[in-house]
Design goal:
It comes from Dyella jiangningensis. By secondary structure, the chain is an alpha+beta fold. It contains 20 helices and 40 strands. Helix 18 links the parallel strand 29 and strand 30.
């Protein structure tokens, strides 16, 4: 497929101009390398070693400021205060819109550079304040049980490669000699769980699967996207840790792909080589192996052992020079020593609008029985579900602090009117998993407003100057490097919340306070929770606040007070509970009975799926899932609210596929909204109202049961993803509906007989046959009849296009030799003679769909 032309790109450029840019781009990196080489030559061996670690110290005598290489930009600039929070990566992938990914990447880069320069060009830059973003995650989401799959662009190599390249180009900008930031695709390579044991597992991957599935997106990121760095993974491949694998980092990355940038480890991966892989007996040996293999930068401090390795002759000073020069060349290209660097223009309103567009494009309509959607104006809506009003399901993981997050409950009230929207939480996420205490269970005093009275004090105790008094609907706050109220700093304040707890009914309750703790913090902020004047939960040091179990005999209010002294670096606070299921279900039934339609916000959250979490409850383990079905607490909620006969709309909020078997059979409509970012609630409400016509497509397969899949620890692709799964999925990769309809003519080929190595053009006419305008995602699949070991079919092209009602358009695809190639059992990619089939449509080919066939003659190898 041809590279996507970005919206607003300048066309008609002359070949002379393109040649001039090419020459300039190739010359400038050499200049940066020369500058870096001269600087490194002035350093002592100890200074060079210090610069090969992520927290690189200043070298005052050489006017080199300290620089922390670790920054994140997965779906917005992360962990450095207020920043636009876009949909999680899996949601961005559901847009199937490369232009959108490019725009989001550009927005993230602009915010990163703006914050970097706000600190000061020649100042020391700490963690998350740099211009080297360790994003995107382009691992293949091979199994829905992996908790970090939410960070990826899904299960398909072509979709991942196309979106990854667009995001990288957006991050780095148009000038390869002077990138806005440097992108770091990760985790190289063959890394997708399980999370428990991730620091020491060894992958026995076949040559076919490596070349066919796991490497293509990384190749595209380097060869087509020109990423300036890459992160090697924790795992070993056939017994050798990825960060010490010479053929991977040398022969393939720098040789075959021509990579000129720097390689960084996943954090503490060199330590893992010693402690868990037992690859070498100490960190000196592990560090030497990684450095010689081509790993330039260690996230962590293990490379400090290179001092010993150098003394023992395991490495030489030339090895240090090579790595240090690559790193300083990157800093020169980024302009870190250029006093003329100017701050970019960052418009928060424009970025919020982009976040709304991204969230809207990511929504996938999976079911719409009897056209229950869009909802009509004046509809009375009962909102239920644990994800209806929770901040975490907007922000996901690796996120910034959203300025004005809009939850689904907020969005529906704004879109349809607060008087027409009732709310009942209805359930917890899963058995034993707390959720935020909802606004319906909080009152700011006798006869007061819903929520709690919040008093915000200057200083990290409760005796400072009172800055703000307000009513907070709930205590569910992200305060990472950002003040919770105007007039306060990012730290050094205290808050007292007071009011009443209104239990929905009698039973046993568990009350708890969760604090979002930073990676390297020592100790928690002091937290004290009181019920009816009695201290029930507290922490003053290193432990999490304790959970309190209470029993109530009725639904009478109880006095509640929460005190938080924010003196450290904890990143947020959340007042949570586990309420009695019977009481919550009864409350949800009452809301449903008084409404015209029920909209249930269910599924998962970053509290149960994510990176190496401390979670061990039914269905979840260490951030991964052991059961891909909807947790039983939420399934019972859906059954309860549907029993009254009101139409039921189910909105899935998760980072991965969930087996919604009951909902597929019984719900009237189903949407997948993923973790939709700061404007997610507004996007969902606009979609339910028909202001937005949904056009997202699934970037993953929704399986019916985990038993349909091979063992999670097995990296063999047989039986996984739409390309190799022979069963009947619940919903297929590429699925998605619209409020309008589309029709396709048969694809037209440039030739029905293609010589191996030559390209082929495909065109298809698409018509909007409905009464609404809408986007259509045109998908092109290639099938390989009778070829042993080949995928059942493979996506080879896609385009998201807008079509007005009645409009038609011819969509064109260009398939090059790589798109027409196959990988054999030995891992050799080539275009091979045979008869092939092409299908075009808005989803994978349906049963009985007639393909267009063509023949390839001859044989042509394709570069690795």
């Amino acid at each position: 497929m041809r590279p996507v032309k970005r919206r607003g790109a300048i066309t008609g450029l002359t070949s002379a101009w393109l040649l001039a840019v090419s020459v300039s781009a190739s010359a400038m990196p050499d200049q940066a390398t020369a500058q870096a080489s001269r600087l490194v030559a002035q350093m002592t061996p100890a200074e060079k070693i210090s610069q090969l670690q992520s927290a690189s110290p200043a070298i005052p005598r050489l006017n080199v400021p300290a620089y922390e290489w670790w920054s994140e930009g997965l779906h917005g600039l992360a962990r450095d205060g207020e920043a636009t929070v876009f949909p999680q990566a899996i949601g961005l992938a559901a847009s199937w819109d490369a232009d959108l990914l490019h725009a989001v990447g550009g927005a993230v880069a602009a915010q990163a550079r703006d914050k970097f320069l706000a600190t000061g060009l020649h100042e020391d830059h700490g963690r998350y304040n740099g211009l080297t973003l360790w994003s995107p995650n382009i691992n293949i989401f091979r199994d829905p049980r992996w908790g970090r799959g939410q960070e990826t662009y899904g299960e398909d190599p072509h979709l991942t490669a196309t979106l990854g390249v667009a995001f990288i180009e957006g991050l780095q900008g148009d000038d390869p000699a002077h990138p806005t930031v440097i992108a770091t695709p990760k985790h190289f390579v063959v890394h997708s769980g399980p999370e428990p044991g991730r620091h020491g597992f060894d992958v026995d991957v076949s040559p076919h699967d490596l070349e066919d599935t796991y490497l293509p997106a990384f190749r595209a990121a380097i060869v087509d996207g020109h990423a300036g760095s890459i992160m090697c993974a924790y795992n070993a491949i056939h017994g050798v840790p990825a960060c010490a694998l010479p053929w991977l980092l040398g022969e393939r990355l720098r040789g075959d792909w021509g990579f000129k940038g720097f390689v960084v480890t996943d954090c503490d991966a060199v330590d893992d080589m010693t402690k868990f892989h037992h690859y070498r007996t100490d960190n000196a040996g592990s560090s030497a192996s990684a450095l010689r293999a081509g790993t330039d930068l260690n996230c962590g401090v293990a490379y400090d052992s290179l001092r010993k390795a150098l003394a023992e002759g395991q490495v030489n000073e030339h090895d240090l020079d090579t790595a240090a020069t690559r790193l300083f060349a990157a800093r020169y290209r980024l302009g870190m020593f250029d006093t003329s660097m100017s701050r970019p223009h960052v418009d928060p309103d424009e970025q919020a609008a982009l976040a709304l567009r991204a969230a809207s494009e990511s929504i996938v309509l999976l079911k719409n029985r009897a056209d229950v959607l869009p909802l009509k104006p004046g509809t009375r809506i009962a909102v239920v579900g644990p994800n209806a009003d929770a901040l975490s399901v907007l922000e996901a993981n690796y996120h910034g602090t959203a300025r004005h997050p809009v939850t689904p409950l907020d969005g529906l009230r704004q879109q349809f009117g607060a008087q027409r929207v009732s709310y009942a939480q209805g359930a917890t996420l899963a058995e034993g998993v707390p959720v935020p205490i909802p606004v319906t269970a909080l009152r700011s005093g006798q006869g007061g407003a819903a929520g709690l009275k919040g008093e915000y004090f200057e200083g990290s105790d409760l005796f400072g100057k009172l800055i703000v008094t307000r009513t907070d609907a709930k205590v569910d706050m992200d305060t990472d490097h950002a003040p919770p109220a105007k007039g306060l700093g990012a730290s050094g304040y205290a808050v007292r919340w007071s009011g009443q707890l209104l239990p929905p009914g009698p039973g046993d309750y568990t009350l708890s306070v969760r604090v979002d703790r930073c990676f390297d913090c020592r100790g928690h902020d002091p937290v004290h929770l009181y019920l009816d004047g009695r201290l029930i939960s507290a922490t003053d040091g290193d432990q999490e606040p304790t959970a309190a179990k209470i029993h109530v005999d009725d639904a009478q209010p109880h006095d509640l007070r929460l005190e938080w002294q924010h003196s450290g670096e904890d990143q947020g606070i959340h007042l949570q509970w586990i309420a009695p299921p019977e009481a919550q279900l009864a409350e949800a039934r009452r809301a449903a009975n008084d409404a015209d339609v029920v909209v249930a916000f269910v599924c998962l959250s970053p509290e149960v799926e994510g990176e190496e979490l401390k979670v061990d409850v039914p269905g979840f383990l260490g951030g991964d899932r052991t059961d891909i079905g909807l947790p039983s607490t939420q399934r019972k909620l859906l059954e309860a609210v549907s029993a009254g006969g009101k139409p039921l709309v189910v909105v899935l909020m998760s980072g991965s596929a969930v087996a919604m078997t009951w909902a597929k059979d019984h719900a009237d409509a189903i949407l997948a909204a993923w973790y939709p970012g700061e404007q997610g609630g507004a996007a969902i409400a606009r979609t339910l109202a028909g202001v937005v016509n949904p056009a997202g497509r699934l970037p993953v397969t929704f399986y019916r049961d985990a038993r349909d899949l091979p063992p999670f620890i097995d990296y063999d692709m047989k039986g996984r993803t739409y390309r190799y799964f022979d069963g009947e999925p619940l919903y297929g990769f590429g699925d998605g509906l619209s409020y309008t309809t589309f029709a396709y003519d048969a694809p037209v080929l440039s030739s029905a007989r293609v010589k191996a190595g030559d390209p082929m053009d495909v065109s298809v006419r698409v018509r909007n046959t409905g009464a609404r305008s809408g986007d259509e995602v045109v998908q092109l699949y290639l099938a390989y009849p009778g070829v042993a070991g080949a995928p059942r079919r493979a996506l080879v092209g896609f385009q998201r296009i807008p079509l007005a009602a009645g409009e038609q358009r011819i969509v064109q695809f260009h398939l090059d030799a790589r798109a027409l190639s196959l990988v054999d059992a030995a891992g050799v990619r080539a275009v091979r003679a045979g008869r092939y089939e092409l299908f075009a449509g808005g989803r994978q080919p349906a049963a009985g769909q007639v393909p267009v066939t063509f023949t390839i003659t001859g044989h042509a190898d394709v570069p690795r």
